[in-house]
Amino acid sequence: xxxxxxxxxxxxxxxxxAQEPPQCTEAREGQLACMAGKQCACRxxxxxxxxxxxxxxxxxxxxxxxxxxxxxNIVQQPxxxxxxxxxxxxxxxxxxxxxxxxxxxxxxxxxR
Length: 112
Fold this sequence. Notes:
Strand order of the largest sheet: 1-2-3
Helix content: 10-25%
Distance between the termini: 93 Å
Radius of gyration: 29 Å
Shape: elongated
Low-confidence stretches: none
Order of helices and strands: HEEE
């Protein structure tokens, strides 16, 4: 019985895992789509005899394309920010307390 349930689960979950990106056609030229973390644009790509490809519409997801914007439904939790490049970023409304007191004398040879 378990094997049958497992087989049914795998059979019905395959279409979910194998979704293709939307087709890039002349009607969708200029539209943006988020694919693999990149904001891809549907655009016309001219072919040529050197590339051996015909003129076509395709998704441009190259390295010069920006990353997708963050999901507006995800709210970042308040708190301390991690160090960025060795600089500590204080949280909003942070007021530092009093210092540890006067500085201790520097070690080393005394006055002569």
